[in-house]
Amino acid sequence: MSEARQVIIIGSGPAGYTAGLYTARAMLDPLMFAGYASGGQLMLTSDVENYPGYPEGVGGPEMMVDLRKQAERFGLEVEDKNVERVDLSERPFKVWVEGEEFSANAIILSTGADAIWLGAEGEAEQKGRGISTCATCDGFFFRDQEVVVIGGGDSAMEEANFLTRFCSKVTILHRREYFRASKVMEERARANPKIEIQTFRVVKRWLSDEKGLTGAILEDPRDGTEYEMSCEGAFIAIGHKPNTGFLEGQVEMDDSGYILHHEHTMTSIAGVFAAGDVVDTRYRQAITAAGMGCEAAIDAEKWLEDNVH
What we know:
Blueprint: E1 5-10, H1 13-25, E2 31-33, H2 60-73, E3 77-79, E4 85-87, E5 93-97, E6 100-109, E7 113-115, H3 123-126, E8 131-132, H4 135-138, E9 146-150, H5 154-163, E10 169-174, H6 183-191, E11 195-199, E12 202-209, E13 212-219, E14 226-230, E15 233-236, E16 240-242, E17 272-274, H7 286-307
Parallel strand pairs: 1-2, 1-6, 2-3, 6-17, 8-15, 9-10, 9-15, 10-11
Antiparallel strand pairs: 4-5, 5-6, 7-16, 12-13, 13-14
């Protein structure tokens, strides 16, 4: 094990790269383990038009390259490797990567949360080409088109209502008769003239042509009857899963596994900070993740100044 670093950042994406930029500029010699799939959810996003500084829009992967280059220019060291486990019981904290042990006086967690996908046939090929998990991010691209939203919770209702600002019609598909959504959210969706609700509908296969998504084959789970439905876009809203398994519950989390903040961006363990979608259950935007990455870096710098000599 080498000498303890001041800061190790676990995870990349807008939160991690921004934390890396700020800690590098603060001369904290940060080391980032970005993961094998570095860049986070934006690596699956074809066009980002709502991030400041890109007047013509930018591809998600291209944007992640820009953020990484900027942070590396100021001294962030990046390893595209996954962290296997950590020991946060004492300082310096220990981090294991591919069997090698590292240590740090402070850790910033920015491992994000992955959207839960249906896993239907043809889905992988249409991710970012008609199938999305973020209406706020991608709804604008479906102006005057017919789209579907899959899900039965508040998120699905909220996504559907939001999409009616752009789309000519929004159909909510749900596998059951009853919804998990609050009555208020469900009634709001039912009252919207642009929204149609279909229950007992499961997506079995996505349909597409050379231009992108064209529809889906749906199944009624009660009797296996199949239906073909046309649509030009689809939004999957069945939840997210935070990437916190490697922590083995060492920091306080909510029932879904999202990390909880205790003081500003600090977790339940002093010296361990968290930023981005691994914390955020509400906004899940690149800009909010980047802002929280900045906060975590400043909080870590201040904490190190006061506690590590």
